Amino acid sequence: MSTPDAPATPSSTPATAPAAAGPVAAGPAADPRLLATAPGWAGRWQAARRRLASGELGSLPVVVGLVVIAVVFQSVTHHFLQADNLTNITRFIAGPGLIAVGVVFVLILGEIDLSLGSVAGASAAVAAVLTVRQGWSEWVAILAALAAACVMGLLHGLFFARVGVPAFVVTLAGMLAWSGLQEYVLGDGGTVNNRHDGIIASLDSTFLGDGDIAYAWGLAVLAPALYLAARLHTARRRRAAGLTAPGAADSAIRAGALAVLTLATAYTLNQDRGLPLSLVVLLGAVLATDFVLRRTRYGRQVFAVGGGVEAARRAGVNVARIRISVFVLSAFLAGLGGLFYASQQGSADKQLGGGNVLMSAIAAAVIGGTSLFGGRGKTWSALLGILVIQSITTGLDMVHAAQAIQYMITGAVLLAAVVLDSVTRRTRTTGRG
Q: Are residues 316 and 393 in the same domain?
C-alpha cells in the first residue's frame, strides 16, 4: 500500500490530468495552442512568447505594417492621416474588400477562384442594363444581378465538386466566359452610367445620418460591448463544459483595446463626413461571415474540408456540398463588390472587374493572414489586407508614383506574406515533430 506522498508512476497518471500538462509543455512536439496558460500578466506573456516561437503571429505583422505605412506616408506627405484622406480609404476598400472576403472562403478550402473579378464585372453590367435600359426597379435589378452571380458560382462548384475538373481550370474558364458575358450585356456602347439618384449610385456616396456623428460613435461603443459580451458568454459555456476559458480580465483588456481602436476611428470619420455606408456594409459582411466560420457547424465543416478532404469525408462531411456552397458564396460577394465598384466609378463598363481587381482581392486575403495551403484563415484578414493595399495605393497616389511602382510594391508585400505563411507552416509542422 503506497503512502499519500508517494510519487505516481506514469501508468497511474491520467493522460488528461492538468498536472501532466506542465512537463508536456516543455517538449518540442507539444502544440503551443493547446497548452494551459498561467493566470495573470506572467501567463499572458508566456502564452504570447509560445505563439511567437511557434509561428502563430496572428494579425501582428499586418498591424505593424499598417503603422509603418501610416508613419512613412505621413512623414512624406504631411497629410496622409488627415480625416478626409482616411475617410476615402474606408470608402474605397468596400468593393475589393467584399471580393476578398469570398476569396478567404475559397482559400480555406485550399483552392483558388480566378473568376471573381469577371463575376463582379458581369453582375454590375446586368444590374446597370436592367435598370437603365430595361427600366426595371433598381432593387429588382440588383437582386437579379446577385442571383446571376450565384448561378455563376454554382456552375463553378458543380464542375469542380461533381465533375472533378480542377478549380483552377474551371474558374479560369469562368473568367473568360463571364468577361464575354459582360461585354455582350453592355453591348456596343460598352458603358452604362448609373442613375444619378439611384441605389447603386448612392452606395459609395452615402454617409449614415447625412454626417450625423451619433452613428459613428454608436457603432464605436456597440462593437467592443458586443465583443466583450460574446467572449464572456463563450467563457461561461466553456467552464460549464469543464474546459479552460479566458479570464474576465483578459476579455476586458481585449475589449478595451478594441474600444480604443473603434473610438479613434469614429473620431476621425466624424472630423470629415461621418460614417460611410460602404464601410458599414463591408464590416457587416466580415462580421456575418466570421460568425459563420467560427460559430456554426457549416463553418467547422469548411475548415475540415480545407484541412483534409478524405478525413472530412470519413467524418461524415458532405464534401461536394461544402465545396459548391463556398463557390456560390464567393461569387455572391464578388457580385456585391462589383456593385460598389460601379458606384465608385459612376458606371458599369467593360473594364470593371479587370486589371488588378482579382489580384488585389487575393493579395488582401493572403496579406491579412489567410493561408494559401488551406484549413486556416479568418474573414477579418480580408479587411486588414485590403486596408494595407489601399493605404499603399493611396499613399503612392499622393506622392504621384507611377502605377508600375504601385504594382511592384504590392507584389513585394504579397510575396512577403506568402513567405511568412510558408515559414509559419513549416515551423508549426516541425514543432509538432
A: yes
Residue holding cell 514543432? Answer: 431
Rounded-to-integer distance, Cα 231 and Cα 92, Å? 31
For residues 17 and 365, give the distance between their C-alpha atoms in angstroms, rounded to a whole number.
39
CB 192 within 8 A of CB 129: yes
3-state SS track over 118-143: HHHHHHHHHHHHHHHHCCCCHHHHHH
* Per-residue pLDDT tens digits for 405-417: 888 888 888 788 7
360 and 287 belong to one structural domain: yes
Statement to judge: residues 360 and 406 lie in one domain: yes
Burial class (CB in 10 A: 0-12, 13-18, 19+), 404: exposed
Helix ranges, 187-318 (H) = 199-205, 213-240, 248-270, 277-295, 297-307, 309-314
Q: Does residue 390 sit in the same domain as residue 298? A: yes
Pair 282, 351 in one domain: yes
pTM of the model: 0.85
Q: What is the C-alpha to C-alpha distance for residues 389 and 360, in angstroms, rounded to an integer?
A: 7
Provide the mean pLDDT of the chain: 84
Is residue 320 within 8 Å of 135, Cβ to Cβ? no
Q: How many domains does the chain have?
A: 2
> What domain range includes position 236?
208-275
Residue 32 is predicted with a pLDDT of 46
Tell me the pLDDT tens digit for each residue of 74-119. 999 999 999 999 999 999 999 999 999 999 999 999 999 999 999 9
| Residue 42 lies inside a defined structural domain of this protein | no
pLDDT in tens, 5-22: 444 444 434 444 344 444
Q: For residue 260, report the phi and psi dihedrals to the nearest 5 degrees.
A: -60, -45
What's the mean pLDDT in 366-387?
Answer: 87
Is residue 300 in some structural domain? yes
β-bridge pairing 347-349 and 191-193:
antiparallel
Measured CA to CA, the distance from residue 347 to residue 381 in angstroms comes to 29
**Nine-digit cell string for 39:** 493566470
Written as nine digits, the cell of 105 is 472562403
Q: Do the domain assignments include residue 367? A: yes
Report the CATH number at residue 199. Answer: 1.10.3470
